[in-house]
């Protein structure tokens, strides 16, 4: 069984002993019920990680020793950005969790015309922090040492302007897409996957996206829910050109 993993804000220590942050220590002690000498892994979300063993544990304090740098790498050769039109809170949490597990590098929430969820600036800041915590938990589970970058939600037009010079393929998932994903040329190291809200993108949004270089593609004959389409699209990209090969 893999050793339990804990996120610790950077920088990671350079010494021989390290005390886990309070929240991680409580989880290790009260939830996982770890004991002295149990192996663990700590990562900083920026690619750094080390293996260690528990030297002291009790109450709100867990001290590690035998720190050794972990060289394992779990990042995809294809840098995927998921541009997800805002959807219901539970669906959005699910998308962030699964997209993180599947290896996306960035998640860009987009406010579309038919988005059910509408967030004020204050609420959006809280949701971004919440999504980051969802991504942290997903990285702890799946073995990634690099957290995906989760951006502040933007209106559709503002997001297109912000990513105008972004490199790589631009793919728009649509049930009526003209071509299948496998018919597209292989992306050169990066791809942006644009997924609509529950009601789909409006005709105007589709036209604007196409003018911005997005190619409408389909994933089979079935009409997928927004959260299903996002995860299916990421998995397909990883299968064709990423780390599923």
Description of the molecule:
The chain folds into 2 domains: 5-69, Hypothetical PUA domain-like, domain 1 (Ribosomal Protein L25, Chain P, Beta Barrel), CATH 2.40.240; 79-241, SPOUT methyltransferase, trefoil knot domain (Alpha/beta knot). The model has no long low-confidence stretch (mean pLDDT 92). It has helices spanning 22-31, 89-101, 121-142, 156-162, 203-211, 226-241; strands spanning 5-7, 17-19, 39-43, 49-58, 61-69, 79-85, 106-111, 149-150, 154-155, 169-173, 179-180, 190-195, 215-218. Strand 3 and strand 4 (49-58) form a beta hairpin. It is built from 6 helices and 13 strands.
Features:
Alpha/beta knot; Ribosomal Protein L25, Chain P
Give me a quick take on this structure.
It is built from six helices and 13 strands. It has 245 residues and is of the alpha/beta class.
* Strand element count: 13
Overall morphology: elongated
CATH fold name of the largest domain: Alpha/beta knot
Beta-strand proportion: 25-35%
Oligomer: single chain
Blueprint of the fold:
Blueprint: E1 5-7, E2 17-19, H1 22-31, E3 39-43, E4 49-58, E5 61-69, E6 79-85, H2 89-101, E7 106-111, H3 121-142, E8 149-150, E9 154-155, H4 156-162, E10 169-173, E11 179-180, E12 190-195, H5 203-211, E13 215-218, H6 226-241
Parallel strand pairs: 1-3, 6-7, 6-12, 7-8, 7-9, 10-12, 10-13, 11-13
Antiparallel strand pairs: 2-5, 3-4, 4-5
Helix pairs in contact: 2-3, 2-6
């Amino acid at each position: 069984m893999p050793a339990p993993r804990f996120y610790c804000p950077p920088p990671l220590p350079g010494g021989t002993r390290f005390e886990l942050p309070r929240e991680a220590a409580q989880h290790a002690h009260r939830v996982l019920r770890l004991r002295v000498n149990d192996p663990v892994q700590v990562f900083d979300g920026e690619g750094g990680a080390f293996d260690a063993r528990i030297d002291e544990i009790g109450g709100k304090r867990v001290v590690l020793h035998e720190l050794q740098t972990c060289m394992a790498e779990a990042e995809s050769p294809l840098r995927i950005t998921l541009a997800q039109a805002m959807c219901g809170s539970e669906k959005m949490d699910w998308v962030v969790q699964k997209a993180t597990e599947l290896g996306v590098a960035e998640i860009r929430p987009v406010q579309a015309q038919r988005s059910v969820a509408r967030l004020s600036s204050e609420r959006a800041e809280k949701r971004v922090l919440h999504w980051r915590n969802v991504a942290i938990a997903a990285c702890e589970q799946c073995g990634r040492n690099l957290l995906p970058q989760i951006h502040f939600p933007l209106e559709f037009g503002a997001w297109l302007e912000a990513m105008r010079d972004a490199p790589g393929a631009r793919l728009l998932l649509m049930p009526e897409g003209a071509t299948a994903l496998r018919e597209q040329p292989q992306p050169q190291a990066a791809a942006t996957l644009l997924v609509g809200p529950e009601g789909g993108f409006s005709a105007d949004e589709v036209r604007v996206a196409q003018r911005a270089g997005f190619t409408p593609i389909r994933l089979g004959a079935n009409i997928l829910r927004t959260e299903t389409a996002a995860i299916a699209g990421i998995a397909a990209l990883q299968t064709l050109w990423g780390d599923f090969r």
